[in-house]
Prior knowledge:
By secondary structure, the protein is mainly α.
Amino acid sequence: MMATRDKLIDGAIAAIREHGIAGVSARTIAATAGVNQALVFYHFGSVDDLLAEACRSVTAARVAVYRARLADVSSLRELLDIGRTLHRQEQAEGNLAVLAQLLAGAQNDPTLAESTAAALRIWTVEIESVLHRLLDGSPIAPVVDPAGLARAVSAAFIGLELYDGVDPEGASAAFDALERLAVLVEVIDDLGPLARRAARAKLRHLT
């Protein structure tokens, strides 16, 4: 049987989907979860704290699903393929609406902003680890900051998730453009030793 805390976390996410962040309350969450609304405060102290925990736990669960695949990624194109798959699944499961609502609510809610940022960092840490591994020894390594690039990837994914809602073709074109950049990196990595050294030296001068 599902624990009450888990019911409330699932209820919070479902309530965001149904009512939007502005319509979420202890009452709507409890009704969705099928429990007494007093249990929101008993288990979490406040609605904000419940939403914060829901944001973190749901993200951690999503990352866990992809952790093994991320560990096996051997190219930037493979990383992008995972991004495409994740994009399709998030769209199909309705998580896009939840993400949009959380980001909207975070603009004026410090507690929600902190938890949303923490949830995004869960993804960023995983992506940064992959980028460190992929770029190690690459000629482009001198001009790439894996930590900053991981954040840029996360930000781009969020933007594409939201952009897809108003311009699906544009979002698809953006993914295609990112794939072409990944191919360019592979071409540079596949250069011969002399060309790799020349490229590395040239790029160092740009930093």
